[in-house]
Amino acid sequence: MKSDNKYESKILEDDIDKLSKNLYLESPDLWIDFTDKINDNKFDEMILFFASKYNFLSIIKHAITNELIDVNLPSKNKSYPTISQHLISVAQQNNSAEIYNYLKSLTDNEDSLNYKKTDDKTKNDNIDNANKDTSISYYPKFICKNCKTNIFDTGFSESEKIIYTYSPEENSVKETSRARMNKISCSNCNTPLENVTLEILESLCSIQNCSKCFTNLTIGGITDKVKMIFDDKINKFIPQSTTYHCSNCDNIINENQKNFFGL
Ligand SMILES: [Zn+2]
Ligand SMILES: [Zn+2]
What we know:
The chain is α+β, with helices and mostly antiparallel strands.
């Protein structure tokens, strides 16, 4: 492994070792995948995703400074325009401040090459806004049972069935039909995800949908339930607290949804 000096390469080796142990605990399959990639010196988005998650700056720096990855390329996770944006978001969610600052400084440098640099105040405002946004806004979640990552972060894929036939006119194979298979897999560990479709995942992105049965609450309706407690003094039940539920499946409406609907 190439690195600037012995001291840095020792830190890197130790960090890879620690990350490897973390991943082994998360999932042995994931750990095998990770070990194979490290042995091939392949520092891809998945490796850097976990380095961001577990706050190992040396791994991120190693991959970027030795140009083992171009973080300006599009992310496999469609929610982010670039790998860098994806890693920044992971670092932010996991409070990996060093990584967040490092990646931010890279993108800021990049920006300053392309555009006139915005003054520091605007930059800080942007960071503040970004922090605020993730703390109050709704974030969809679907955890892969195998690798335990949120597939909205790590990505998911849908398979397609494409049928080809031979075309004598063109003297080659031609695509004759293409159909969605409606089979979703976790992009991180390649495990097929049961009982979920692209439509369900899309509906989860909307705060208006029930997180359990995916019904649009503005169409299916909600039910309020008032818990009554008995008051001995007046010999009557009096209301104590109210909860809101999906009318279709009775699943409780979460805090984000309550705020959104002003309940
Ligand atoms: Zn997975
Ligand atoms: Zn429901």
